[in-house]
What does this fold into?
Amino acid sequence: MKNHRLRVMCVSSAGGHLVQLKLVLPAFAEHDLILVSTGEEDIGGAAGATLYQIPEASRWSRIQTMLCAWKLMRLIWRLRPSVIVSTGAAPGFLAVRIGRFFGARTVWLDSVANVEDISLAGKLAQPHCDLFLTQWPALAVEDGIHCAGGVL
Amino acid sequence: MIFTVTGTQFPFDRLARSLDEWCLRHPEQEVIGQMGKHTFAPQHFTAVESYAPLEFDRVFKSASHIIAHAGMGSVLTARRFGTPIMIVPRLVSLKEHRSDHQVATANVLRGRPGIVVCDDLANFDECMDQLLAMERGPVTMNTAAPSLLTALQRFIDLGEFPD
It folds into this structure.
């Protein structure tokens, strides 16, 4: 399957989640990269990626979350990525959920900030992920939670 | 120039106040802060609610030292530019965040080169002395651990994850 270009969609909230997502982008260098995030972000460090902006979602704002889900659904419907990768938080969970529905393989990389426990969004996303990674070996004890290193 | 970043999600007035008092006693220091939606208006340093991403990078890059909440975005960006950073964890008990994960983050970062952890703002002055005594490190190629990149690559290309 080498040299088989796939469409990889990476989704995260702005801020620390996006900083971490950018650090793993070299892993997808051989594929067509779509970067989806909240807030107005420059694509510095994500050369070659197509960039899309979505509204922020959170447990605390139902309308924002619905808007975010709607926008993600349209993007995923239109672009049909083969793989969805997220570092969180709520928008990443939505992307994983929707992506799975449309047949994408899904990968979650829990934020390095979650040292003592998997993030809430991560816990919600886990049943819908084909690969679920924490950045802390101590958290990779449960079945289906793996650790292969981190961004620190 | 010292650049202060406290994220744009919640205010962090406790840190802004300590810094403001410190600035009053250190008028020779130039301090700029991206403080988000703060309710406390600092008198002795320049506070901006939010910089556009490119401007943020420019200011961050030109800073000699960083003061930040214990968010990974700030820590990783400081590492990228080799800038010494002091981090102050936000506390749920003071309604500064939704969980105490910044305390855990601060604890795992304690003792790493280029990082000062200030858990208690009563020690703000000492922490600032420690921070300012640190020299800028090399600019690093900021990437994730090679093992993580390989694992992701293998999963995407071959659909497998070695257990």
Q: What stands out?
A: Strands of chain B lie at 2-5, 31-34, 46-48, 65-69, 85-88, 115-117. The mean pLDDT of chain B is 94.
